[in-house]
Amino acid sequence: MNYASKYRLVLVAAAAAAFFSDLIAFLMDAKLIPFTVTHAFLLFAIACVPVLTRPPADRGQRQAVFFWCFATLVVIFVSLSWAQLGEGGQTLFRNRVFGIIFLVLMLLLFSDRQTCRFAAGAVVCVTLVSVALNIYEMFAPGTFSTNPGRSAGLYENSNKSGAALVLGMIVGLEVVSMRWQVLYALAVGVGVATTFSRSAMLGWALMASLAIAMRHGTGRFTRYALIVALAGAVSGPAVILYLEDRGMLDDNTASRANFEIGGESDEYRFEAAQFALDVIVEHPFLGRGTGASVEPPFDFVGPHNIYLALMIEHGILGGLILPALLVASTWGAASEFRPITVPLAIFLSYWGFFSHNILEERYILFVVALATSFTAAPPPPRPATPGLIS
Hints:
This protein is an all-alpha fold. The chain has one domain (about 5-375). It is about 65% helix and about 0% strand. The chain has 16 helices and no strands. The chain has helices at about 5-20, 25-30, 35-50, 60-80, 85-110, 115-140, 160-170, 180-195, 200-215, 220-245, 250-255, 265-280, 305-315, 320-330, 340-350, 360-375. The radius of gyration is 22 Å and the shape is globular. The two termini are about 30 Å apart. About 45% of the residues are buried.
């Protein structure tokens, strides 16, 4: 391995540690570093220049995502002409543009299969550390999370933490040994459970089932599922009762643990969805322009739905932006990579109904770039086979 390849791997490890883990954002919010996430990204981009002078060997699958990035940037900038941007809209505009640039940079950085596997290994390490931090925070509420009682680790937001762990499981299973894959998925499930994010817990259950079934077959999966379901049915209520007795669960968290619907959070989201539908009906074709999804009346509670958010900004066709990205990044993947691409596409399609920040979240874009690069990067060259005549 030459120095350029080693340097590329160092950059990949740094990207996973700084951006997939959301470490930079955590340090910035804690005022432990004197610069912003954008400044850190610009410094990282400059550091990547020496290894980006040579494009990836095979850009077939990447080409579709590059086209999506270009088309989305055009839509974002064109819709600025009728947008009325306040401070929130300007921040969203910058975050979305930098998110697309980040996606392009990661696509270029993950240049070959070896780099992709190394990146997936880095994701596994970050995911396991995040699980450990979430478990620790259960016994030290409020250490990281903005919602004490619901673990979040470095992500600070419990829902983000849950989604990041599920994505780490989907991609990480590619490089975890077959004998440890089920235990890895279960460890991630424990980390997700500590967030008490209902959407993330359901997403983990569905994606873990799908990913394990695709990798181990339905017969072995059924046995695993029965054992896990039995263990959960026996231990789950006891754990919740223990946490309640220790005063570690408030009413909101307890209702989430029981998957109750209709709390204050649900009412806010329902109202935001109603506002969003009213705005979409008023501006069905062009929308209200880039950034409108965080301007009044959405400055207090966002739509919590990427499809509604993009339709508010860009009209009905805006609801196709995320599906177009998922199709571009996963369509036509070889069968060996479908255990990554299929769960990823399904989970992000599902997660779009619960988050309006998908196109700005670096941990999501990191995984999308990695999944795309896995399917696009050429396999390592096979050793030459000696011929019959030497």
